[in-house]
Amino acid sequence: MAVSGLGAYDDQNIFARILRGEIPCRKVYEDSWALAFDDISPQAPVHVLVIPKGRWVSIADFTAHASEAEIAGFWRAVGAVGKQLGLEPAGYRLLVNTGEDGGQEVAHLHVHLFGGRPLGRMLERPAGG
Ligand code: 5GP
How far, in Å, CA of 95 to CA of 111, rounded? Predict the structure, then answer.
């Protein structure tokens, strides 16, 4: 179920629990700002989630309230994941679902990183739309 990108942070959300080591993940990268791990339900040959270590509900929350250092550190980590996975020559796609229309289901900011094949159109087109 989609969530608001503007609600209060819930320390029991699934990614908070992964950050605390309470739930396992297949880690692909970690630094002081971010953790990256395989999505449990991959939608491309490479589908990694990159999450900040801070308690941010969404990109709206993060960009409004995080420090310059955390914002810079997080986005550098996202780029480092693409590089570490060897995706830079072929390319990759980033996606940040935000709030209900964006289809955000976990209320801890996460960047989807997709790659490993040509990824096609950016958005699904509804019939007649
Ligand atoms: P959203 O729709 O919020 O942008 O994406 C949430 C993503 O989290 C989905 O792609 C979903 O497969 C992934 N996910 C949900 N629960 C877990 C989990 O427990 N572990 C991992 N690795 N991914 C999860």
Answer: 6
Banded model confidence at residue 23, pLDDT cuts 50, 70, 90? very high
Residue type at 116 in one-letter notation: G
Q: What is the pTM of this model?
A: 0.96
Instruction: Decide: helix, strand or coil at residue 124.
Output: coil
Cα–Cα distance, 110 to 62 (Å, whole number) = 11
- The structure tokens listed for 123 are 């958005």
Q: Which atom of ligand 1 lies nearest, measured to the CA of 47?
A: 10
What is the token pair recorded at 111?
């960047």
93 CA → ligand 1 middle, Å: 17
Verify whether residue 110 is a known catalytic residue: yes
The DSSP call for residue 31 is -
